[in-house]
Each structure stands twice: as C-alpha cells, then as structure tokens.
C-alpha cells in the first residue's frame, strides 16, 4: 500500500471514530438548525485544495465522485431521524448508523487502495474530498428539512 494512501486511510478511520462519538453525544442534547447546517459550511473550506493543480479533477472524476457521494448519502439519510422528546427535538439513536458508517469507511479505504494504482494521489485526494462533501450536503439538507418539519409541528406553525 502506498505510504500516503495508508496515512490518509488511518486519518479517515480516526475521523470515522470521531464522528461516532460526536453522533452518540449529539443524541443526548436537543438538535438545532445551526448544528445541522454548520458542518458542511466548515468543511467547504477544504475546497481551497482545488486551487492547486495537484488536486484538480477532470470532468469525469468530478461526476464520478459526486454520484458516488450522493448514493452513499442515501444510507446516512435513512438512518438519521428526529423525534420530539421533552418539548425539544432530538436525533434518534440508530444502531444501523454505526454499521453504515463503518461499512462506508471500509468501502472508501478499499476503493482508495484500488484506485491509487491508476490515479495520481493528489487527484485521488480531490476525488475523495468531493465524494465526502457530496455525501454530507444531501444528508444535512435532508436532516434540516426533517428538523424543520418537526420544529414547525412542535411550535404549531402551519406551512402550506
């Protein structure tokens, strides 16, 4: 395994573990629109990598990364639901979420290993960032829509 692929795979595993802990902790506190919307905004700063020619992608690579990311987002969307508890909105705990996150990590590491033989490391990094972003944005948009629906229900706001 290429040294850089190994290091980035270890980094991805650490991030997945961090996400699991954050998710478990988040389920104990009421959800807010800000907590749902801010992560993709903060992550968007990573797009500055594309200013370097080393990370720039072809049209085909962009399309592939976006399609795979959006496909993976379906699994996150299906396992992220909210509930009203004690007059607040909470993210429901889902055992499936943990398995899906670990499964996506394994798929990502395997794909990175296979693709590193034929795609330059910089472009591969750019593809996997775009894949992750294309996975997180639809997931968070769906979470926000579900949160808003419950928020309106909780506060008696009718939306026509």
Identify the overall geometry: elongated
Count of distinct structural domains = 1
Question: Which sequence of SSEs, written as H and E, runs from N to C?
Answer: HHHEEHH
Number of strands: 2
- First-to-last CA distance: 55 Å
Count up the helices.
5
What is the beta-strand fraction?
5-15%
Mean pLDDT: 89
Structure characterization notes:
This protein is mainly α. It has one domain. The protein contains 5 helices and 2 strands, in the order H-H-H-E-E-H-H. The chain has a two-stranded antiparallel ribbon. Helix 1 packs antiparallel against helix 4 (95-115).
Layout of strands and helices, then pairs:
Elements: H1 3-26, H2 33-43, H3 59-78, E1 82-85, E2 88-91, H4 95-115, H5 121-154
Antiparallel strand pairs: 1-2
Helix pairs in contact: 1-4, 2-5, 3-5
